[in-house]
User: What shape does this take?
Amino acid sequence: MSADITQPQGGWLSPDQMQGARDQVPLVYLDAIPVRVDEAGVLRQVGLLLRATQDGMLTRTLVSGRVHKGERIRDALLRHLEKDLGPMALPRVPVSPQPFTVVEYFPDPGVTGFYDSRHQAVSLAFIVPVFGDCEPTQSALELAWLDPTEAISPDVLVEMVGGRDRLLRMALAHAGVLP
Amino acid sequence: MSADITQPQGGWLSPDQMQGARDQVPLVYLDAIPVRVDEAGVLRQVGLLLRATQDGMLTRTLVSGRVHKGERIRDALLRHLEKDLGPMALPRVPVSPQPFTVVEYFPDPGVTGFYDSRHQAVSLAFIVPVFGDCEPTQSALELAWLDPTEAISPDVLVEMVGGRDRLLRMALAHAGVLP
Amino acid sequence: MSADITQPQGGWLSPDQMQGARDQVPLVYLDAIPVRVDEAGVLRQVGLLLRATQDGMLTRTLVSGRVHKGERIRDALLRHLEKDLGPMALPRVPVSPQPFTVVEYFPDPGVTGFYDSRHQAVSLAFIVPVFGDCEPTQSALELAWLDPTEAISPDVLVEMVGGRDRLLRMALAHAGVLP
Amino acid sequence: MSADITQPQGGWLSPDQMQGARDQVPLVYLDAIPVRVDEAGVLRQVGLLLRATQDGMLTRTLVSGRVHKGERIRDALLRHLEKDLGPMALPRVPVSPQPFTVVEYFPDPGVTGFYDSRHQAVSLAFIVPVFGDCEPTQSALELAWLDPTEAISPDVLVEMVGGRDRLLRMALAHAGVLP
Assistant: This one.
């Protein structure tokens, strides 16, 4: 069991390679729900990213992405958390490899209620407490920290797509703080 | 959320297609540990399959296999259980999509201790009680039901490959019956 | 590890003894959410008990009760399930001792949102598929099987007390079917 | 849901009161497995306390203790961790109330294999990463940090009593690092 970070050298794929893989098999994905906790470990706030879609719509989303070939799940979690929350977020990846749930995204919304127009993905979902300073990077416009009641208000949930509003409520339920 | 069994029409791949996918991405896999339980739900026996490898070695293994494109995890579980235990096994797939652990198989045994020479796979592991008659099919020579103490005896564990001896002990630990 | 059902001989307490214990320590409780599943293990319906409170109000509730001295958790689960659903319910108690959540009931609703005016209780919560015929016994007037969408409708949730509406939604979330 | 630490004012019991409660009901207990993790969250070391029993025998044990009346589980966890590891240990209590397992201690070792000569206890078990400086307090003579292979060596396991050697291996299994 290596202590080194796994090297996803073969991870980055050209659009053609990506399409080839999508055509053959479900992809391994991750969803991370960034949270702030208090001293006793109680979930106090959830971090939601505000993002503009290609057609200009604003959506709220969670940290999410693909596991590359050659990469361990933990290292993929850290990579996506750093990509979306910046290098100073100090996330604490859970000690157990057991996700709190597994989400199955299909191009057809009717199969599970979770969907992704691009491909089928099997996503391991983790709640990840962060202790440092977050600054949204890349395509995210803003990171908003909301308490559980704010997070599940109808005007927030309506801005989440692909079923992530349900995933958010599942995470709050697992943490024992679903209002 | 469809009640119908998902159709993995695009699931079967030619050897070339399979190799193509393996070269690009980790595969989504399942491990199922078939068990017998008593009336109170206590795990009493574990079902291990005896199989001959291509070079004639006998190995003991668990129910394991790939999730096809277009297929739900639950349906893949049922398909692999039926393939290995026969159509009358009456398996009870767990109500929650949360696996008891996630195993990362790499071609290099040094990364996680779990390995598969063919490819990288991310495997969701479930304990599945079976209530009917099992008859090993396909490549399995025999299905042996062992109580937890027999199952972790050195001469049984030594016949398991790829780290599945560890997975078996992890399953017994999760069920509260690791001796 | 005994295969016999544990004997809660010292389990039944007089009102004075019960009050004495309540004054000193939190009590060990169980909550069981009875469910119907389909062949693939998907939760299709939740069983809610209709009960009249002492002041004549109708409430909907889950299977719930105390673990007796000398009794194993699994045996307490079976005892309460049989008491509330009848002897032909054929419940399948989970193979793992890990509850899907732990609920802390306090006499003060402000501590956790879960409350019981009589005492503090730490309750292990399990989802329990039942496969037989249920007939509510004892104080329950009716057992209603509701699909997830019906179960979380406002007019059902409002009839649940002590925070059990939240527990019900937490169970649906864990099962991956929270609407 | 109060942010304040719950006040276990009624928590401390006289020996007579304690005996009275023990005679009537199972007690609510906690087991915490203190661990060191690396940046990716992988469990690297387990903290075992060395303690002298009343008859002078040396035993290795985990952080363990009772939940007081009026006390939340999280606050009891923090209290026992501080009592055993000192005030600078900086433990990170998990965000979910779901324990990784539940252990049932009986005065009779034959019931579950977990035993406590004093009483029956239902113990919620959590893996707790600690990030600060630990100094064993009270009755503990020493705190030893062992990697998973050292921790399950026969000469360490033989020094653990009441079934805690099994609990330790169950924790390592849940964390994915059982050798």
